[in-house]
Amino acid sequence: MRDAYHEELDSIGEGLVDMARLVGSAIGRATTAILDGDLKLAEAVIEGDKKVDELQHDLEARAIALLARQQPVATDLRIVVTSLRMSADLERSGDLAQHVAKLARLRFPARAVPQDLYATILEMGQLAQRLMAKAAEVIVSKDVDLAMQLEQDDDEMDLLHRTLFQHLIDDRWQHGIETAVDVTLLGRYYERYADHAVAVAKRVVYLVTGEHADELQPDIQPVTGVEGA
Fold this sequence. Notes:
single chain; Methane Monooxygenase Hydroxylase, Chain G, domain 1; elongated; disordered C terminus
């Protein structure tokens, strides 16, 4: 019985990894759709979010059933409760990728991103995908040091978001109000997506150590050029 119990705990972790990989792929494809004005790809991302929702609902149901049947305590209870919170972070990440794709669909056949901001949005999309790939790796490895790096890596997203905002408030902005609103929304979507990736990693820190990430002070240098999945 206990073997089956721990297999179920492991399967919940595997479900989280599947969710992280799906939403990582989704933000990458949504970025391509918004930059290229690719309606077919945008529609695929929007439709694909249903799979993320299904995984989240299934994981939630299994975790709650496990709580009811086994009444886990200590570390096992922390795993179940933390997994529920991570699944919510990942589901919201999928929603944000879907928001990017919906904006691409809304503006088709035009493109929502002006050419002079193409590189910045591309970089934000690629960084978001790398952050989620690292979050997935953290879920698998339970590597606390790697998890703690994500918040420092997220500083790059904050810098890109500020760069985007500087373009919007520049007197030389010539793309109109509608495009300004679109770009503002995109910047927010990517920033929040990155925040959720960081939140997932922080929850792994809590799962492993029983302490919140903000309470730990590791001597870690930020890592750049992390490869995405």
